[in-house]
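Request from the bench team (R.T.):
"We need a structural guess for the complex before ordering more zinc ion. Sequence and SMILES attached. Just send the C-alpha cells back."

Command: build protein-zinc ion structure.
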Amino acid sequence: MKKYLRIGLEVLLVILLVASSTFAYLNFSGKKHLSIDMEEVAAELDETKDTLDKTKEQLEDAQKKTEALEETVKQFDVVKQAFANGVLLQDIEALYKAQKVLNAERLVGLGTVRQLSKGFEDASAVEAFQKSLDIAELGARMQAVCAAQNSLVSAGKKVKVLAECTGKLEKPIDHGKSAQNVHWGYEGDHGPEHWGANFATCAAGKKQSPLNIVGPFEKSKEVVKADYKESPMKILNNGHTIQVNIEPGTSTLTVNKEQYELLQFHFHRPSEEQVDGKNLAMTVHFVHKSKEGKLAVLGVLMNEGKENATIKSLWANLPPKEGEEYLPAKMIINPSSLLPSDMSFFSYEGSLTTPPCTEGVSFFILKNNVDLSKAQVAKFPFKLNARPVQALNDRKIYAN
Ligand SMILES: [Zn+2]
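Reply to R.T.: structure attached below.
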C-alpha cells in the first residue's frame, strides 16, 4: 500500500513539477510579449507626437501665409478699385498733361492703364492702345536708325544725321577717335596735359574751355532765358562725372531768338571756371543743343554753404555702378531748381571741357552762385574732375 502511495506521490510530484515549469514558461513568455507590445506602443506614441508637432507647425505656417495673402488681396483690391473708378487713369493723364511729355513709352503705358480701367469692351480704348503700340514700334525703329547714324559719325564718317536723331548724339566727335573708346582722366598719364595725344583739338585749339573769368569785359547784348520743366530724370555715372539726362522735349534755353534743347546736366569738382583766379567748390554745366547741332553750355558755380535740396535728392539716387543710365522710381526734378534767381551772366566762345574738346560751344557762366553743403561736396563720387583753365588767346569775355 505504501508502495502505491509513494508512486502516487511521485506521479503527483512530477505533475506538479511539469505544471509549475509550464506555468513559469508561460508566465515568462507572456511577460516578454507584453513588454514588446509596450515598446511598440511607446514608439507609436512618439511618432504620433512628432506628427502632431509637425502638423501644428504646418498649421502655423499656413496661417502666416494666409495673413500675408490677405494683405496682398487687400492691396490688389485697392489697385482694382483705383482702376475701376478711373482715379489712377485720371492721375496719370493729369501728370503727363502737366509735364507736357507724351512719348511712345508713356503712350503704351497709358494705353495699358486705359484698357485695365475701361475694359476690352471699350472700342476707343482698344484702338488707342493699338495706336500707341504702333508708335512705340516706330520709335524703336527710329532708335535703331539713330544708333547706326551716330556710330558712323563716331567712327569719323561724314553722315547727314536725321533731325530726329540729333538729340541722341550727346557730343560731336572729331578726328575719328571716340572719346568713349580712349581712356582719359584728370590725373597722371591720362590727365588733361596728355589729352592732345589722342584728341588734337584739346592741345591745338585756340578757343578752349574753361576760362578764368576776369575783366575787362565787353558789354553783352544777348538775351538768355532758361525754360526748364519738371520731368523724370535718368542719372548716370559715366566714369568722368555724374550726369543727369533730360527727357527729350521738356526743357529749353533761348539765346536771343535761337532755341536750344536741354540734353543733360553734369557736375565738376572743383568748379572748372575760375572767377578772378579762384575756383569754387563745384560747377553744374547744363548742356544744350540747337536744331542745327550748335551747343550751348550754361554754367552755375556752386559755393560751399547751405545744404541744397535738389542735390540732396540727386545724391540720394546716385547710380549703384558706373555705366548704365539709371531711372530712380520717384525722382522728378525741375533742373531750374539748380539755377539762381538772378540770371546775369558772363559769356564767351569755348569748347567741350572734356575730350574731344570740340570748339564752337557758347558758354554762359552765371554771375550768381548756388549753395551746397560741405557734406554734399564730399559725397560727390569724383574728387577731381575739372580741366584746368585754358588760354584766352584773342577771345573776349562778355558780361551783361
Ligand atoms: Zn562740364
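Two things stood out. The radius of gyration is 41 Å. The chain has three domains: 1-84, 98-154, 171-399.
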